Design the sequence.
């Protein structure tokens, strides 16, 4: 199947903008991976230490409340309270650690693989990109192939993209489809806005950090200083808890 494109002169501009949007979106993902490889562990270490401080503060508040009401602490009830209070925080920490692990496992593509993947993707996108070919959203087979193409493109998987090109050619067959893009000028403006949004927000906006060695070192230094500050505060809070436990007045009830 060949696409018979609209005679509207704006069609090519729209097509190129879609490809540009997909390219900067891919770059944003690569920047985020590089960012996590550089700073992910320090960021998660900071967050974990911050959570330890939060948990200590909640423990102190719980003990203080007990002191104000007779001094008896039900250890099981306190543990249940802290678990509930900290659940969302620890879910965020697990997500961060999982992202860090995925980033550290990500392979490095050669310049050839990057350019070859880009060429194959552009060729495939011009045939079955859902915003270009209306048949893609109507066909389960084409949509599945498109989703595989997007995944392969983001991983610069040239082998997969090459194989998908064969499958796409087979899936399209010989029936021609005429493509008309309604409200094309409005759509062009929307895609331009999307590109601008991607480029000027994170993770794309972190590009300077992963490409500037001096900026990266300064960021690592700031994160290390922040971590040491949290560690110091954590020790201070632990000392307060120990003082409360040793100072009398609290009776810890364990079932």
Sequence:
């Amino acid at each position: 199947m060949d696409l018979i494109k609209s005679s509207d002169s704006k069609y090519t501009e729209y097509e190129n903008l879609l490809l540009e949007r997909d390219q900067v979106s891919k770059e944003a993902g690569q920047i985020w991976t590089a960012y996590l490889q550089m700073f992910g562990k320090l960021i998660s270490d900071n967050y974990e230490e911050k959570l330890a401080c939060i948990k200590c503060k909640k423990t102190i508040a719980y003990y203080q409340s007990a002191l104000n009401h007779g001094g008896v602490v039900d250890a099981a009830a306190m543990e249940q309270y802290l678990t509930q209070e900290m659940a969302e925080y620890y879910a965020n920490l697990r997500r961060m650690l999982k992202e860090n692990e995925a980033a550290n496992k990500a392979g490095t593509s050669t310049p050839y693989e990057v350019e070859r993947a880009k060429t194959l993707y552009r060729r495939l996108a011009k045939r079955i990109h859902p915003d270009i070919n209306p048949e893609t959203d109507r066909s389960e087979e084409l949509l599945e192939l498109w989703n595989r193409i997007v995944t392969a493109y983001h991983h610069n998987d040239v082998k997969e993209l090459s194989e998908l090109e064969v499958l796409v050619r087979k899936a399209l067959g010989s029936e021609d489809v005429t493509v008309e893009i309604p409200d094309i000028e409005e759509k062009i403006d929307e895609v331009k806005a999307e590109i601008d949004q991607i480029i000027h927000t994170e993770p794309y906006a972190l590009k300077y950090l992963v490409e500037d060695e001096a900026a990266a070192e300064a960021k690592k230094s700031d994160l290390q200083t922040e971590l040491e500050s949290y560690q110091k505060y954590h020790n201070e809070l632990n000392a307060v808890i120990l003082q409360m436990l040793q100072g009398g007045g609290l009776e810890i009830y364990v079932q």
Summary: The first helix runs from residue 10 to 67. The beta strands are 3-5, 72-74, 177-179, 251-253. The radius of gyration is 27 Å.
